[in-house]
Amino acid sequence: MKTIDLRKERKRQRREGYKETILHAAESLIVRKGYRATTMDDIARETQFSKATLYNYFRSKGDLTYEIMLHYFDDIKRSLADVQALDLAPWKSSKGPSSRSSRSTTKGRTSRGPS
Question: How many folded domains does the chain comprise?
Answer without folding.
Answer: 1
